[in-house]
Design goal:
By secondary structure, this protein is an alpha/beta fold. 38% of the residues lie in helices and 17% in strands. The strands form three sheets. The protein has a five-stranded mixed beta sheet with strand order 5-4-7-2-8, with no helix packed on it. Strands 11-6-3-10-12 form a five-stranded mixed beta sheet, with helices on one face. Strands 1-9 form a two-stranded parallel sheet.
């Protein structure tokens, strides 16, 4: 398992609800839920993404922007639009009017919106990030992430454009997976952009030595790893591995391993409510629960029991990662929303 695959495995669309409606400019859609990660793609037409704190970003046909929460944002026909914002966050469609995909005044993407501007088709996917594992991925992202056009994303957009205009069995599952595919392609292309500053672990994965060490730590985090053992598995001297790993990742191998184990443990403490601290300790490679508790508090700032108590009793936030869009007013942009 490589680092990126590990970090993104908890970020998936699931059970999305799709709605579409015909509107004409001006329009303003205010996405109020502040999902941890929201992917916005325009298939046809154009608009502007206006972050809560930040400059407006144009979004043209076949372009994608990823927004990192919890800040909200607005999608508008033009900056300074006179439209009253529609709060998108409680309902994506009217369920009693048409099943998975709800149509109100469907139009073909090439039809003008009435003032010479083509109708705009917006695809939006909001992603919940409930795990501590995936939060490490979020930490590496800016609030507004724009991927360049072209690349592997184009093939996904072709599939999305074809799938979103038909009603067929299994469509919801297909669209969920296409959104996941588009998100992965977008993030990879952003990390690899010329002149970019990807997180250290991204570039380190491609080093023949450090990349192998990272894959070993992620594949078997509970193994009794030492720097010597890692060096033997990667085929270099102990000192070579230690220096190369620290130079590329920014910390020694065993420090990285400890932080990764504590991240895994944080999720297990919440997910496995009946497991004892000793059970969790053994799962992440500690035979001594006291040593595990000390390491957990050193890394996370609280002991395992306190972390579990706080995490499991916290009330659900209004910023839960769901995107649902109101689509009933403001007449000629076709909007397709997804809600995990």
């Amino acid at each position: 398992m490589d680092v990126f695959s590990d970090l993104i495995r908890g970020v998936r669309a699931h059970g999305s609800l799709f709605g579409s409606s015909t509107h004409s400019p001006p329009w303003a859609l205010h996405f109020v839920d502040g999902a941890p990660l929201t992917l916005c793609t325009v298939l046809t037409g154009a608009g502007w993404i206006v972050p809560e704190d930040g400059p407006p970003e144009p979004l043209r046909a076949r372009e994608t922007i990823v927004m990192r929460g919890p800040a909200t944002f607005t999608f508008v026909d033009e900056v300074g639009t006179r439209a009253e914002p529609i709060a998108c966050g409680e309902h994506c469609a009217t369920p009693d009017q048409g099943g998975t995909r709800h149509r109100l005044g469907w139009i073909d993407p090439g039809v003008d919106a009435g003032d010479g501007r083509a109708a705009t088709t917006l695809i939006v996917g909001a992603y919940p990030v409930r795990s501590e594992i995936s939060r490490r991925l979020l930490d590496a992202l800016p609030v507004v992430l724009r991927a360049g056009t072209g690349g592997t994303s184009d093939a996904v957009l072709d599939h999305l454009a074809a799938e979103v205009v038909v009603d067929t069995p299994g469509q919801q599952v297909v669209l969920d997976r296409l959104l996941d595919w588009l998100l992965v392609c977008t993030l990879r292309e952003w990390f690899d952009r010329p002149g970019g500053e990807p997180p250290a672990w991204w570039a380190a994965q491609r080093d023949p030595v450090v990349g192998d060490a990272l894959r070993l730590l992620h594949a078997e985090p509970a193994a009794p790893w030492t720097v010597t053992a890692l060096a033997e598995h990667t085929g270099v001297a102990r000192s070579t591995l230690a220096k190369r790993f620290a130079d590329q990742v920014g910390e020694p191998p065993l420090t990285y391993l400890t932080r990764w184990r504590m991240t895994l443990a944080a999720d297990l403490l919440v997910e496995q409510e009946t497991a004892t601290v000793a059970d969790i300790a053994r799962t992440v490679g500690y035979s001594d629960p006291f040593g595990f508790s000390a390491a957990f508090k050193r890394v996370r700032g609280v002991n395992p029991s306190e972390f579990r108590r706080t995490a499991t009793t916290a009330s659900p936030s209004g910023r839960a990662a769901r995107l649902k869009s109101a689509i009933h007013s403001n007449p000629d942009v076709e909007i397709t929303c997804t809600r995990p």
